[in-house]
Design brief:
two-stranded parallel ribbon, 5-stranded mixed sheet, 199 residues, alpha/beta
Length: 199
C-alpha cells in the first residue's frame, strides 16, 4: 500500500507534540492523542474519550449546539480527547475535524503553492455568483477582511486580491487557505448585489 505523502510529511514535521488550529496532537507510546488545545494540560480522566465514530459529530456543532458550517471557525468544542491508533487513524480524525487540512498543508509547502486568487476564482463563476466579478478591489478586500478575520476562520489565507496582502504566518494557524470558500463567495455576492441595487 502506497504511503500518503501529505500524511508522511505532516507526521514527520513534529517530534512529540503539535498545535494545529484548535487541536493539540501528541505522540503516544502507541499512536497519538488529540484534544482541544485549551485542554492541553487537563487530566485525561476529566476528558470524554471519543471513538472513531464520535469525531465527525463533534465537529458539526458548537458546545451550545449550533451548527458549524465552517469547520475552521474558532469554536471547536472542548472537553474531549481521541486516541488514533496509528497514522492512518490520525489522518482520518484530522480530516473529520478539519477537512482537507493535511493535504492543503502539504500543498502549501511547495515552492509555488496552488493558490487561486479572488479574481481567478470569481472569474470561473456563473449564474448568480457571476456578479462577484463586479466588486472593485477595495470592496472585495473589505469582504475578505470581514469573512476571513481570525475571529471567524483560523485558516491562513494565502490567496488575495489587489491591494490586500495574504495573512501573516503568525496571525492564524498552520492550516492554509488556498482559494476563496463558499461562505466568502456568498458574502461577496450579497455585497455586489447591494452595491448594484438602486438607493
Amino acid at each position: 500500500m502506497l504511503k500518503n505523502p501529505a500524511l508522511a510529511a505532516f507526521v514527520a514535521g513534529f517530534e512529540t507534540e503539535l498545535s494545529f488550529a484548535q487541536l493539540w496532537i501528541r505522540r503516544m507510546e502507541r499512536g497519538f492523542e488529540l484534544r482541544h488545545v485549551a485542554d492541553r494540560d487537563c487530566d485525561s480522566a476529566m476528558l470524554r474519550l471519543l471513538g472513531e465514530n464520535d469525531i465527525r459529530p463533534l465537529a458539526q456543532f458548537t458546545a451550545d449546539g449550533a451548527f458549524r458550517p465552517l469547520k475552521s471557525a474558532p469554536n471547536l468544542q472542548r472537553g474531549w480527547r481521541a486516541a488514533p491508533r496509528d497514522e492512518e487513524a490520525l489522518y482520518l480524525a484530522l480530516n473529520q475535524l478539519y477537512p482537507g487540512a493535511v493535504a492543503d498543508w502539504f500543498a502549501a509547502q511547495a515552492p509555488q503553492p496552488p493558490v487561486t486568487s479572488y479574481r481567478e476564482f470569481t472569474g470561473r463563476q456563473t449564474g448568480m455568483y457571476r456578479v462577484t466579478t463586479h466588486l472593485g478591489d477595495a470592496a472585495a478586500g473589505a469582504v475578505i477582511q470581514a469573512c476571513c478575520h481570525k475571529d471567524f476562520c483560523l485558516k491562513r489565507r494565502l490567496w488575495t486580491v489587489e491591494g490586500l496582502a495574504p495573512d501573516a504566518a503568525a496571525v492564524k494557524s498552520a492550516i492554509p487557505c488556498l482559494e476563496p470558500c463558499a461562505i466568502l463567495l456568498e458574502s461577496a455576492r450579497k455585497t455586489a448585489r447591494a452595491a448594484s441595487s438602486p438607493a
